[in-house]
C-alpha cells in the first residue's frame, strides 16, 4: 500500500512518513521527515476525510461525513428523472 506523501515544504525533497496517530475516525496526524540531510526538517501533517463521493453500504450511524455537492446534485437529477419515468 502506498503512503500519502508530499514534498518537504522547505527544500521540496522527498519525505518519509515516520509515524501516524489516529485522532478520530475522520482525522489522522502523520509525522514526516525530510530525506535531504542538508535540510532535516521534521513536521506533522494532517489527513482528513472531507466529503463522501459514494455512500457506504455499511454506514456508521454516529458518523457524519458531508456528501459532495456534485454527488448531491447528480442524485437530485436522478430522482427528478425517476419521477418523470414512473
Class based on secondary structure composition and strand pairing? alpha+beta
Proportion of strand residues? 25-35%
Specify the number of helices: 1
The number of domains is 2
What string, H for helix and E for strand, traces the elements in order?
Answer: EEEH
Question: What do you see in this structure?
Answer:
It is a single chain. The protein is an alpha+beta fold and 86 residues long. The chain has two domains: 1-49, no CATH class; 51-86. The protein is built from one helix and three strands, in the order E-E-E-H. The chain has one helix at 69-85, and strands at residues 15-24, 27-34, 42-48. It has a three-stranded antiparallel β-sheet, with no helix packed on it. The model has no long low-confidence stretch (mean pLDDT 87).
Descriptive labels:
three-stranded antiparallel sheet; single chain; 86 residues; 1 helix; alpha+beta
Secondary structure: elements and pairs:
Blueprint (H helix, E strand, L loop, with lengths): L14 E10 L2 E8 L7 E7 L20 H17 L1
Antiparallel strand pairs: 1-2, 2-3
What is the gist of this entry?
This is Ogr/Delta-like zinc finger. The protein is an alpha+beta fold and 86 residues long.
